[in-house]
Design brief:
Helix content: 40-55%
Radius of gyration: 24 Å
Shape: elongated
Number of helices: 10
Order of helices and strands: EHHEHEEHEEEEHEHHHHH
Strand order of the largest sheet: 8-7-6-5-9
Strand content: 15-25%
Number of domains: 2
Number of strands: 9
Largest sheet: 5 strands, antiparallel
Structural class: alpha+beta
């Protein structure tokens, strides 16, 4: 039994049944279904654009007299849960709130990376005192990024020394809720510890390069939705054209048939683009792709 696909899932947040049907009928998904039961395939793709838009607003938020405690912005998803931060809490982290020292341990550029870090989650902790949940993302062999939450609200984001973190776990300050195998992280790929003249999350140029890399290699639900929209639009237009085809003059009929042919090509092209996205999600080899396309 081939199990290479079992750790992957595809789930569109707020997806439409028409979208699901088109994607699940793609040639690539049909190939995957030979090894993975249909019930094990869910549609789970994140809309990164909205997170990045909210983060951009927050990091550019000006210092002002009052910040809203109730207005919240989603900035990432962890294990199918949306996590939010309020204007007040973010301003507090920035040190904008009077009588609060602030708790910003990261360069603001780092926040753009947050939506893409779920794949690097390696530990979930619960504080023994206040029962707050912390999500840990490995940055390198020495440090962990901790996101502290309460009822899906992000209270703080900071860097914790791994030695201190393990000491706190041993002393029962934190209870380990879940720990995942492996601690592969994206940051050291761009900035090995031996070559960093200073702490990597303070290097704006490296953070920007990493952000571009993660963004380019991450597949958003919008990538699928945009393709499906074209397919559905083209199918609807073909349906309307065919309905009135018999009523047209020979010259008009030729023009409409050419238009139908063009729309059918657009449908096929976009179905192939959907297949390519699925190849990428499931990391299919060239050999497997040839099998899917019927080429031995």
């Amino acid at each position: 039994m081939i199990t290479k696909f079992q750790r992957f899932s595809i789930k569109l947040i707020d997806y439409d049944e028409k979208i699901k049907n088109i994607i699940s009928n793609s040639q690539a998904i049909k190939y995957v279904l030979k090894f993975l039961p249909l019930e094990n395939i869910t549609f789970e793709l994140i809309n990164y654009d909205k997170y990045l838009k909210n983060i951009e607003y927050l990091v550019n938020m000006s210092n002002q007299k009052l910040f809203c405690r109730n207005k919240k912005y989603s900035i990432l998803s962890i294990q199918n849960k949306e996590f939010f931060i309020t204007e007040f809490l973010f301003a507090k982290q920035l040190g904008y709130i009077k009588n609060y020292q602030g708790h910003l341990d990261l360069d603001l550029c780092f926040y753009k990376l947050l939506p893409f870090l779920e794949n690097y989650l390696y530990i979930i902790l619960q504080n023994s005192d206040d029962k707050r949940i912390s999500y840990g993302f490995n940055l390198d062999n020495k440090r962990t990024l901790l996101i502290v939450t309460e009822q899906n609200i992000i209270l703080s984001i900071f860097i914790q020394n791994n030695k201190n973190l393990h000491k706190q776990i041993k002393n029962k300050r934190f209870e380990v809720i879940n720990q995942f195998g492996g601690t592969t992280n994206p940051l050291t790929l761009n900035c090995p510890a031996s070559s960093c003249p200073k702490t990597f999350w303070r290097q704006t140029d490296l953070l920007d390069k990493l952000y571009q890399k993660l963004k380019n290699n991450s597949i958003s639900q919008n990538d699928f939705i945009n393709l499906v929209d074209i397919i559905l639009y083209s199918k609807e237009k073909i349906k309307k054209y065919k309905k009135y085809l018999d009523k047209l003059s020979p010259i008009e009929k030729i023009e409409i048939l050419e238009e139908i042919e063009s729309l059918e090509k657009a449908i096929q092209d976009n179905k192939e683009k959907i297949d390519k996205l699925v190849y990428k999600i499931y990391n299919l080899s060239d050999k497997e792709i040839k099998i899917i396309k019927g080429k031995r």
